[in-house]
Design brief:
About 40% of the residues lie in helices and about 20% in strands. By secondary structure, the protein is α/β, with parallel strands linked by helices. It has a seven-stranded parallel beta sheet with strand order 39-40-38-41-42-37-43, sandwiched between helices. The termini are far apart. It holds the Pfam family Helicase_C.
């Protein structure tokens, strides 16, 4: 009967152990049998499916498999696995269970139900088992047992000549335990070791990864050999190497040679050299064990070579194989050895004859190289005849009309060698050893100088070549050669280097400054030509006296940059002086500041400090300003004052919410205080939605200024503009400037302020053209986004604030971004909230005022008149309490009209001033990468806002009282994670319980009576987790009940309810007097 003992005895231990492992991994599939004749068939899953057949006849067993191991050894693990499966089927549990526990970690057999369940598992389960088996085998160290019986390894290094690659080493191996077996296919063995497979050597010995182990040092060698094998396999079809042609060994490529030979040197490795085989080899970087002996034979000389007969130069490695030693040569030694190998047959050559006339050169050139690789001896006769004085090289220079002539001499004691002439002055009785290295350095520099030789003279006659020699080559030659020159050459060599001096002078009460160029001892007539040469990036300029000015020095570069960037011709320089408009002063200063020889007059120094360091300026703050400026706002004010003083314009580009409006008002007020009697009025142009916001800001911060808003019909506006003498500041909108530009052209303004100046970013629009026709002393732009889409927008704004500063539109397009940035930087002041975070409160609150549209105003005034009449009647007849709810309902209607008339008026097709303002604010905020919460107490208002945003392609989150609780949390998390930029929230739904630190901007579309409710709304963003300053905007409609609500809100600090929703406690707390104030009755 089939039993485990029988199966174990039928197979080698290695096959049995692997077969047992395959059995436990359930790799045996489709096992079937014929009960009549005992014939069994099965498939075993290995690297592919193998077919196994088994015949059982009482006590005889026959089996075969389709795998390669069976074909070679008539035995394999697949057969073991199938036989174990058959034993299981036959029910030999008692016998099988006699296996030691150490042979397996899991029971070999299970009951029938469990086995059936396992066999029916999905093939994916089998896949996971296979993957575990495969990836458990990473490399030699992890796949090879370290606790089994140790295997001895003997290596052999054998030189093998290959016609394509010369002589290369081949590594061969023997392994075994008691007896060593030759590895007939090293690559195959390495593959078996890596893949944890048994390798058959003979009936007496097979390598079994589960029974045998290798020393750590041998595993390291195996890993390197495997790496060589893999790289060779990869490159074999596309490389000239194709090196390992013999299965018995692996040919060693140069890339791995040093590493592998170092490892083999420490192990049991034999070395073959010719017919000799050495049990160990020497691995060294010492000089070669050769001796060259130089002796004299009559009048000539002989170089004898004493060496071993076993010599092989392995050029691909840079090794010399001598007897039982491998010498590793340095790069220099390899160069020497390569020349020797190409000239001498090292195996047969024993002596080299040298002629008498060649001995000096041989000693100078050849012997020093030979001494680098081996020992060189000289006979006493040779050594006594050698002289070795130091080399003193001399170079004689003289000028001949338009060329420089040179003569080179090598002096060795009394011997003089003329390298460009055959005639030498030397002592024929002595052998002169020349300083070959130094001579080569000198000749290389002479060759780089482009000298010409006509058989007699060594000369230069081209200006470029002369300059290169004098200023590039000669300083290097002077370190190793003694230079002697005639008087005509000396001025060219000894002239002190000219360093340009630049003086920048700002003229008082003028709109220009001067750039003065001074080149020491250079005629003024030469300055234009010198500058022209600098612009053209020439290496030098030759003066009339023949001397050279080298122009590649750093001190000349700023001059070239100045003329090239400003596109100025050198002819613009008159008597060493260049005149430029003042607005070029900062650009010029930055261009020439790298020159150490730049100087400024005091007026120019003040200009630079005022513009570049406004925090150091001390222009007095306006006395009547009704505000305390923060430090950064004072800096902005000083910057505006400095630019204005020099008649410059600029762009105040602070982040939204940092107070650009306040800084501009402070600036205008200061100018008015200084010249209140004679000052021309200033003009502020803003988007229509911000006109009244400016008016209110002036009332708040500069009440002493007479401010006039240009509004009404064409004739009304004309009358307002013509009454300019009775006004300090005019405020209008971009659309009205476009319509009234002819009226403005009749007047001149002290300062023009362009708020949200991106409105003129397109220079082709009528609005931009109209703005640029307005006459003014200064023009300043306020914009957090002066560039929205392209640099052309910046050009258009600068065309308004500093006309002529940038070149024409076409030329501007060719400027680099770096150049544009450098030019515009002094005229743009931008601070971000994060930059001035320490100065800012963690929450900035701002009121924005809008104007009712014409349609809105008509509706509002009609409703207001009706409510006022009803309220007045009720109060005069003591019927206030009876009519309270009706009056409060009327207040609600007025409030809704301010928001948007369509809230309760069907089919309203007009616009809302506040809605237009909101959309402008959203555009600006999104351009500044801000994320917004918009609150309204009306969910119907939020829906109108949602529609308007959707029409602009903006999809916000939306939350009102109908939003499920789960969605509230989901929307908040998504918004805080960066999804979408706007969140619309109704007061009742989102005033509490939401955490939205992902927002940094809060817009309160409509006001609430209760300040605490507003605080709850702004608190959605201004809370734990918020890392930015939160900007809060309250939108109020000018001249409406909203202004009075806000005023009452500021006075009344007690808890009050919002009147917008009737029935809440606010209505009972409003007094009759408060309602009178609201309705002006």
């Amino acid at each position: 009967m089939l039993s485990i003992e029988i199966i174990k005895n039928m197979f080698p231990d290695s096959f049995y152990r692997r077969g047992l492992q395959y059995y436990h991994q359930f790799r045996v599939e489709q096992l079937s049998n014929s009960e009549k004749d005992g014939h069994w068939t099965a498939k075993v899953a290995g690297s592919k499916l193998y077919n196994v057949e088994v015949d059982i006849f009482e006590d005889e067993f026959f089996y075969n498999c389709t795998c390669s191991a069976y074909e070679e050894y008539q035995s394999c693990k697949h057969c073991v696995a199938v036989l174990l499966e058959i034993a299981n089927k036959l029910g030999e549990k008692s016998t099988v269970n006699k296996l030691k526990v150490s042979e397996t970690n899991t029971p070999l057999f299970s009951d029938g139900k469990e086995e059936q369940q396992i066999k029916s598992e999905d093939s994916l389960s089998q896949l996971s088992t296979n993957l575990i088996d495969l990836f458990a085998e990473d490399d030699f160290e992890s796949t090879t047992s370290t606790i089994g019986e140790p295997i001895k390894v003997e290596y052999s290094l054998k030189p093998d000549y290959n016609q394509a690659n010369g002589t290369l080493f081949t590594v061969e191996m023997k392994i075994g335990i008691e007896r060593l077996y030759v590895v007939k296919n090293l690559k195959e063995l390495l593959d078996y070791i890596e893949n944890k497979k048994e390798y058959y050597f003979s009936k007496s010995f097979s390598y079994d990864p589960y029974l045998h182990s290798f020393h750590k040092e041998d595993l390291e060698i195996f890993q390197l050999l495997a790496k060589i094998n893999k790289s060779e396999t990869f490159f074999n079809s596309r490389s000239a190497w194709n090196i390992s042609t013999k299965q018995k060994g692996i040919t060693l490529p140069p890339l791995f040679a040093d590493e592998l030979i170092s490892l083999l040197h420490e192990r049991n490795c034999k070395l073959q050299n010719g017919d000799e085989e050495f049990n160990h080899f020497k691995w060294t970087s010492e000089k070669l064990p050769f001796t060259f002996s130089l002796i004299q034979e009559e009048e000539n000389y002989l170089l004898e070579l004493q060496k071993s007969s076993l010599v092989e130069y392995m050029s691909k490695y840079g090794y010399m194989l001598v007897d039982n030693a491998v010498y590793k040569l340095s790069d220099q030694q390899q160069q020497v050895m390569h020349r020797i190998n190409n000239s001498i047959d090292l195996e047969s050559t024993t002596a080299i004859p040298i002629k008498q006339e060649d001995i000096g050169l041989f000693l100078s050139h050849v012997v020093p190289s030979l001494e680098m690789i081996c020992n060189v001896e000289m006979s006493p006769e040779v050594r006594s005849s050698i002289t070795n004085p130091p080399l003193v090289a001399k170079l004689f220079l003289e000028i001949d009309i338009v060329r420089i002539t040179a003569k080179l001499e090598y002096h060795y004691g009394e011997d003089i060698i003329l390298p460009f002439n055959e005639e030498n002055i030397s002592n024929q009785e002595q052998i002169l050893i020349r300083d070959v290295k130094k001579e080569r350095k000198i000749m290389k520099l002479i060759e780089l100088s482009s000298f010409k030789f006509n058989g007699v003279d060594l000369y230069l006659e081209d200006d470029d070549d002369i300059f290169t020699f004098l200023y590039d080559i000669l300083p290097k030659l002077e370190k190793i050669v003694s230079v002697f020159s005639t008087g005509e050459v000396s001025p060219l060599l000894n002239r002190e280097q000219i360093k340009p001096e630049i003086q920048l002078d700002l003229q008082t009460n003028a709109n220009y400054f001067e750039v003065n160029f001074d080149f020491t001892d250079v005629n003024q007539n030469d300055i234009q030509q010198i500058i022209k040469s600098i612009i053209e990036k020439k290496r030098y300029y030759r003066l009339q006296d023949g001397s050279y000015i080298p122009l590649e020095e750093d001190t000349f570069h700023p001059i070239g940059d100045l003329f090239r960037e400003l596109n100025i011709a050198p002819e613009a320089v008159n008597s060493g002086k260049l005149t430029l408009p003042n607005y070029r002063s900062l650009q010029v200063e930055e261009l020439v500041s790298r020159n150490r020889g730049v100087h400024y007059n005091k007026a120019f120094e003040k200009l630079i400090a005022d513009i570049k360091k406004p925090s150091k300026s001390n222009y007095p703050l306006p006395k009547t300003l009704n505000a305390d400026l923060r430090d950064y706002q004072i800096v902005g004010y000083q910057w505006l004052r400095g630019l204005s003083y020099y008649h410059f314009g600029g762009i105040l580009a602070d982040d939204m919410g940092l107070g650009k409006t306040l800084q501009a008002i402070a600036f205008l007020l200061a100018k008015w205080e200084e010249n209140s009697a004679s000052a021309q009025p200033s003009l502020v142009v803003s988007p229509a939605s911000l006109v009244y916001n400016w008016q209110n800001e002036f009332k708040k911060f500069a009440p002493n200024l007479k401010v006039k808003v240009i509004q009404g019909s064409k004739s009304e506006r004309e009358n307002l503009i013509n009454d300019i003498e009775n006004c300090d500041v005019l405020i209008t909108s971009y659309p009205l400037v476009r319509q009234d530009f002819d009226l403005y052209n009749e007047h001149e303004f002290s300062t023009l302020i362009l708020d949200e100046a991106q409105a003129i970013k397109n220079h082709m629009t009528k609005t931009a053209r109209a703005i640029k026709t307005i006459r003014k002393s200064n023009c300043f732009a306020l914009s957090g986004t002066p560039i929205e889409n392209s640099l052309d927008e910046l050009w258009s704004i600068f065309d308004a604030i500093l006309p002529g500063f940038f070149p024409n539109k076409k030329t501007f397009g060719s400027l680099s971004q770096q150049q544009i940035s450098r030019m515009s930087r002094p005229f743009i002041l931008r601070r971000l909230k994060k930059d001035v975070l320490k100065e800012l409160p963690d929450k900035i609150e701002t009121v924005h005022t809008s104007e009712l549209t014409k349609e809105q105003k008509e509706l509002y005034l009609g409703y207001l008149e009706k409510i006022q009449s009803e309220a007045a009647l009720a109060m005069s007849t003591n019927g206030f309490q009876k009519n309270r709810m009706k009056i409060l309902a009327g207040l609600t209607r007025l409030r809704q009209l301010c928001c948007h008339p369509s809230l309760f008026i069907e089919n309203y097709e007009g616009e809302s001033g506040k809605m237009n303002q909101l959309l402008d604010m959203v555009d600006n905020a999104l351009e500044n990468k801000q994320r917004i919460l918009i609150f309204s107490q009306f969910s119907s208002m939020l829906k109108i806002i949602h529609t308007q945003l959707s029409n602009k392609g903006i999809e916000p989150f939306y939350l009102d009282g109908n939003t499920p609780s789960s969605k509230r949390v989901e929307f908040a998390e998504r918004f805080n994670n960066g999804e979408k930029e706007i969140f619309l929230i109704s007061l009742k739904a989102g005033g509490t319980g939401l955490n939205l630190p992902g927002a940094d901007t809060v817009i309160l579309y409509d006001l609430w009576w209760n300040p605490a409710v507003e605080e709850q709304a702004t608190g959605r963003a201004h809370r734990m987790g918020q890392k930015k300053v939160v900007q809060v905007f309250r939108l109020i409609t000018n001249g409406t009940i909203e202004e009075k609500i806000f005023s009452l809100q500021q006075k009344k600090k007690e808890l009050i309810e919002n009147i917008i929703h009737p029935g809440e406690t606010m209505f009972s707390s409003l007094t009759e007097q408060e309602i009178r104030e609201l309705l002006s009755v």
